[in-house]
Each structure stands twice: as C-alpha cells, then as structure tokens.
C-alpha cells in the first residue's frame, strides 16, 4: 500500500494496551457477499480525495480503514483519527461505521501499510495484538481486521493472534493484502498464515502491483500491468490451497495510487472473466475456472474518488454481476 506518514495528533478513541476511553459498540455479525469489492479508506490526506467514511462509494462491500497505529506494547495497536478528515469526535466516526454496516457493508481495521511498524513474532506480541484488535472491534464496532504487513510476517504467531481474535469474535471478517512476492508459494509466511486460518479467512486480496515481473502458476514469467499477470498469479493461490471465495485481485485505483502496475478497469474485468468463466483470457488460460472467486480490491477509495470513481463503477459493477 502507498501509505502516508500518519499524523500523531488527532481524535483517539482508545482500545486496550494502555490507551484510555470508554468501551463502545460491540461488533455485529457481518455477511460479506459471495462476490465482493474491497476498498481501502485513507485515514490521512496524501493528495487523494479526502473522504469521511460515509463518503465511500456504495459499491464497496468491504471497507478497510487504513491504518491502525502501533503502540509501545509489542504487537498491540490502537486507532487515531486524523484531524484532516474533519470528524468532530470519535463518536461521529463510529456513527459512520454503523451507517455503512446498516447498508450491508463490512468495515475492518487494517494493520500495516508501507510504513507500518507492527511486529507479531512471539507469544506476548500475539496476545497483545489479539487483545487490542478485540478491544477496538468492541469499541468502534469494526467487523474485523485486515493484515497488510509489508515488512515481514511470522506465520506461527500471526496465525495464533488471529485465532485468538476469532475465538472472541466468531463472525470476524479477516482480510489480507500481501504483496505479490508474498504469495508465490504456499511455503511463504503470508501464504502459510492464510492457510492456517482457512476455516475463517474471508479473502486474500494480493497487491498485484508495485512488483515488476513475476512467475505465474505455469512457471512462466509475466509482466505486471497485464491480464496474464493477474490470472497466472491468482492461479498460484487458487491451486495452492485457498478456496476461490478467499481470493481477490488487488489493483491501484489510479496511476497516482501506486508506483507501477495500474491497469484500466477493463483489464481487471477481463481477468475476473478469465478466472471465473474462462473468457477474455490473454495468453495464459487456467486449466479450470473458479466461479466462486471473491472479487477485487483497490488502493484506495480516496484515489478512486479522485479518478472519477471508475474502479467502483466499472470493476464494482462487474464483480457484482459475477455468477
């Protein structure tokens, strides 16, 4: 993710791990649709359209609030609203979360980002992570958590942490946004984590951008920014143990949203068609189709708004029409 340096000042509604604040709403049960569009909502201003949560396009079924903040306790996170967004209070934000949920959307808290510094690499940090996420879910009513750690991940302890979250919130929505290289093999730590929580994992939306050329599931090298790149790399996950409903295609919402790998929405839709129905493929065609594919993701709803909402309308519209 193209994260910005988050503002240290702001409206803090506290979770556990040493922060203060009253306990707010308990997270409610969410129902993610079979085919879903995920979008990251920026809790900062980096030149994209500044949005309140209520401004996020209705096409987005899962909204990942980016990002949680690390605390002084290893593995623990908290959440701070950036003043740039214009919220008068944390309660106003929580009201927006409830409104999105009332409209059938899921709102999850994303941990990580390009500059994220959260490390879960032992039992203590795993417990701190789980306790803080559980507390923030109860406080804000978040439906779950998104794992977007781009500076390393320990599958043993992240799996342990996420299972502890699931134990407290059985209906938790868990999404992931690994970088492309992190999902090239089931032996990679991110992939192992996804498989370790397969019984309750919602979706892995791999960032198919900012990566350069990569090997597809057929062993051939494909360049980013092509339909073959998307389909051949998604194939690795689909054939590596994840259910099709747990696989999504992550792309930038505009050329400004990433350093490389932006594609026109029509290319995303072609990849979705190729994987789900075997049509509109490039030179790579999967040996079988995956009609249960979850959908697509974009960084970010803000960059999408700055780009006229093309991802929401074109890719979102296509995702929602998948059989």
Explain this structure.
Strands 2-3-7-8-9-10-13-14 form an 8-stranded parallel β-barrel. The chain has a single domain (36-319), classed as Glycosidases (TIM Barrel, Alpha-Beta Barrel), CATH 3.20.20.80. With 323 residues, it is α/β, with parallel strands linked by helices. It contains 8 helices and 14 strands.
Task: Describe how the helices and strands are arranged.
Elements: E1 11-12, E2 36-42, E3 62-66, E4 69-70, E5 77-78, E6 80-81, H1 90-102, E7 106-113, H2 123-140, E8 144-149, H3 155-168, E9 173-176, H4 189-196, E10 203-207, E11 214-215, E12 221-222, H5 227-239, E13 247-252, H6 265-277, E14 295-299, H7 301-306, H8 310-319
Parallel strand pairs: 2-3, 2-14, 3-7, 7-8, 8-9, 9-10, 10-13, 13-14
Antiparallel strand pairs: 1-6, 4-5, 11-12
Helix pairs in contact: 2-3, 3-4, 5-6, 6-8
Q: Can you tell me the number of structural domains?
A: 1
- What's the rounded overall pLDDT mean? 91
What order do the strands of the largest sheet run in, or round the barrel if closed?
2-3-7-8-9-10-13-14
CATH class: Alpha Beta
> Structural class of the secondary elements?
alpha/beta
Helix content: 25-40%
Elements, N to C (H/E): EEEEEEHEHEHEHEEEHEHEHH
Poorly predicted regions are 2-29
Summed up, the helix count is: 8
Instruction: Describe the global form.
Output: globular
Q: Could you tell me the radius of gyration in angstroms? A: 18 Å
Q: What is the third-level CATH name, the topology? A: TIM Barrel
CATH architecture: Alpha-Beta Barrel
% residues in beta strands: 15-25%
**Strands, count:** 14
Rounded to the nearest angstrom, the distance between the terminal CA atoms is 30 Å
CATH H-level superfamily = Glycosidases
Main sheet overview: 8 strands, parallel, barrel
């Amino acid at each position: 993710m193209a994260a910005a340096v988050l503002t240290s000042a702001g409206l803090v509604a506290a979770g556990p791990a040493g922060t203060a604040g009253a306990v707010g709403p308990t997270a409610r049960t969410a129902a993610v649709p079979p085919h879903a569009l995920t979008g990251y909502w920026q809790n900062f201003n980096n030149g994209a359209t500044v949005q309140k949560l209520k401004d996020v396009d209705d096409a987005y079924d899962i909204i990942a609030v980016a990002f949680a903040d690390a605390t002084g306790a290893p593995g623990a996170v908290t959440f701070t609203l950036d003043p740039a967004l214009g919220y008068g209070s944390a309660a106003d934000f929580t009201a927006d979360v409830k409104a999105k949920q009332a409209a059938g959307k899921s709102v999850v808290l994303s941990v990580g980002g390009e500059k994220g510094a959260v490390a879960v690499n032992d039992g203590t940090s795993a417990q701190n992570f789980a306790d803080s996420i559980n507390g923030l879910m109860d406080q804000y009513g978040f439906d779950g958590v998104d794992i977007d750690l781009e500076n390393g991940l320990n599958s043993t302890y992240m799996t342990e942490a996420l299972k502890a979250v699931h134990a407290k919130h059985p209906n938790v929505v868990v999404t992931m946004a690994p970088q492309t290289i992190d999902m090239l093999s089931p032996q990679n730590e991110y992939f192992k984590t996804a498989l370790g929580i397969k019984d309750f994992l919602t979706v892995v939306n791999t960032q198919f951008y900012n990566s350069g050329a990569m090997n597809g599931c057929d062993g051939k090298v494909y360049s980013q920014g092509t339909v073959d790149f998307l389909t051949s790399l998604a194939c690795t996950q689909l054939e590596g143990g994840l259910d099709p409903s747990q696989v999504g295609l992550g792309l930038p919402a505009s050329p400004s949203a990433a350093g490389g790998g932006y594609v026109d929405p029509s290319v995303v839709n072609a990849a979705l068609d190729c994987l789900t129905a075997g049509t509109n493929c490039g030179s790579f065609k999967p040996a079988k189709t995956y009609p249960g594919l979850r959908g697509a993701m974009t960084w970010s709803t803000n960059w999408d708004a700055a780009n006229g909402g093309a991802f929401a309308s074109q890719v979102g519209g296509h995702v929602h029409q998948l059989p």
